[in-house]
């Protein structure tokens, strides 16, 4: 039997993930079945199960892939930024300039749907909570850095501020996923940035 290269396996795995995301976006997470992914990817069900044990694992791997890419991007972008304020501004800039593709609204809906789905199951809730805490810790680190440099108000609780930050972000995503009003989505980012930075910075 010919040996399959690691590169081939990775390409096949990514192809399955891309097809799954397309199916989840079009039909929703819960309505999608493995046969939908089989049809879209043109990969047999048996082959898909060689890479992933279940539909849940496919989605969790999609989520992990996007999460890892986000933090890798932030690490690269923040390498040249010397202040906490600039790092926060860079995050807002990233979302304000985000190119919204046709299926982004559906993808956001799937993200929200899976959060609700996972909240009802202890094992998934634990996994999703760990991911959430990774994002919380990221902003906490920036807030503490800013407090040490004098850019951010010292009386603020970094943990609380981080939760507020992500609540604002997720709220705007929720509204866009439901209404699909791109102009309002972008306008809201300007307001959110101004409100948040005015509240947390010492300027």
Description:
The protein has 203 residues and is mainly alpha-helical. The protein is 78% helix and 0% strand. The longest helix is centred in the last third of the chain and has 28 residues. It is elongated, with a radius of gyration of 19 Å. 18% of the residues are buried. The model has no long low-confidence stretch (mean pLDDT 91).
- Uncertain residue ranges: none
Which H/E pattern describes the elements?
Answer: HHHHHHHHH
At CATH level 2, the architecture of one domain is: Orthogonal Bundle
**Termini separation:** 67 Å
Rg from Cα: 19 Å
What is the fold named in CATH at topology level of one domain? Tetracycline Repressor, domain 2
Structural class: mainly alpha
Mean of all residue-level pLDDT scores: 91
The number of distinct β-strands equals 0
Strand count, sense and barrel status of the largest sheet are: none
Task: Name the overall outline.
Answer: elongated
Q: What is the strand content? A: under 5%
Question: Could you name the CATH homologous superfamily of one domain?
Answer: Tetracycline Repressor, domain 2
InterPro entries: Homeodomain-like_sf, HTH_TetR, Tet_transcr_reg_TetR-rel_C_sf, YfiR_C
Keywords: DNA-binding, Transcription, Transcription regulation
Pfam families: TetR_C_17 (PF17922), TetR_N (PF00440)
GO molecular function, one term: DNA binding
């Amino acid at each position: 039997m010919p040996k399959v290269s690691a590169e081939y396996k990775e390409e096949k795995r990514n192809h399955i993930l891309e097809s799954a995301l397309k199916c989840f976006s079009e039909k929703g997470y819960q309505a999608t079945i493995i046969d939908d992914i089989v049809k879209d990817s043109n990969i047999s069900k048996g082959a898909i199960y060689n890479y992933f044990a279940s539909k849940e694992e496919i989605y969790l791997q999609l989520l992990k892939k996007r999460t890892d890419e986000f933090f890798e991007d932030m690490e690269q972008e923040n390498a040249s930024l010397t202040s906490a304020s600039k790092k926060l501004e860079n995050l807002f800039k990233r979302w304000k300039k985000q190119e919204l593709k046709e299926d982004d609204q559906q993808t956001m809906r799937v993200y929200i749907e899976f959060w609700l789905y996972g909240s009802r199951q202890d094992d998934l809730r634990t996994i999703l909570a760990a991911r959430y805490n990774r994002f919380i810790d990221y902003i906490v680190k920036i807030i503490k850095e800013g407090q040490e440099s004098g850019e951010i108000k010292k009386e603020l609780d970094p943990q609380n501020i981080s939760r507020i930050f992500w609540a604002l972000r997720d709220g705007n995503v929720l509204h866009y996923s439901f209404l699909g009003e791109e102009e309002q989505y972008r306008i809201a980012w300007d307001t959110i940035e101004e409100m948040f930075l005015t509240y947390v910075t010492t300027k």
